[in-house]
Design goal:
By secondary structure, the protein is of the alpha+beta class. The chain contains 6 helices and 6 strands. The longest helix is centred in the first third of the chain and has 41 residues. The protein is rod-shaped, with a radius of gyration of 33 Å. The termini are far apart.
């Protein structure tokens, strides 16, 4: 009989030392909350690293990258203000870092920039900064064609804001530019013969 009483006390002691179902459920919820917090923190760190990489890419293409001031940067799009050749800040302009790490800057000559924003920028950027004047409509294309047609000589326009490796495009075809250069050379040689 003494053995049964001792065994009963030991059983009650062991049951009393264990965790209740409510305590077990609280621990599970705490673990789940900790995992969610960790995932959120990792997501924020990843976004910050993406923004830092985007800013570094943009700085590389600027004349004075160290003076760059950024705002509204979401994923691969945003705005930058940097010093120009004269050492003055030129004002904020939008930029896009494309998949191939090439950077396009907004400029008056780049009439297709809004279409590029729609193509390359993340949906979060477009939700916060919608494009008001989508380019690519027939009106815009007709206006661009009229501007090119009214230009008597093919002119060279810089496609992007000051960069280390500038991308130059021509408004006319390469053949027109070559023909114009040949005519100018012929006229210059005729002038020297007289």
């Amino acid at each position: 009989m003494k053995k049964l009483i001792v065994l009963g006390f030991i059983t009650l002691a062991l049951v009393g030392c264990g965790k209740s179902q409510a305590e077990i459920e609280k621990e599970k919820q705490a673990q789940i909350a900790a995992q969610k917090a960790k995932i959120e923190q990792e997501k924020k760190l990843k976004e910050q690293a993406e923004i830092k990489a985007t800013e570094e890419t943009v700085k590389y293409y600027l004349k004075d990258g160290e003076s760059a001031r950024f705002r509204n940067v979401i994923k691969n799009c945003g705005e930058v203000n940097a010093k120009n050749s004269w050492g003055a800040y030129s004002g904020f302009s939008r930029f896009i870092v494309r998949d191939d790490k090439q950077v396009s800057f907004e400029s008056p000559d780049n009439i297709y920039f809004d279409a590029m924003v729609q193509s390359y920028c993340h949906k979060d950027y477009l939700a916060k900064f919608p494009v008001n004047n989508p380019v690519g409509t027939e009106e815009t294309a007709a206006a661009a064609d009229a501007a090119v047609a009214s230009d008597p000589a093919p002119s060279i326009a810089i496609d992007e804001i000051p960069t280390r490796s500038r991308k130059v495009t021509t408004r006319g075809t390469v053949a027109e530019a070559t023909a114009a250069a040949s005519e100018a050379a012929a006229a210059a040689s005729d002038a020297t013969k007289m």
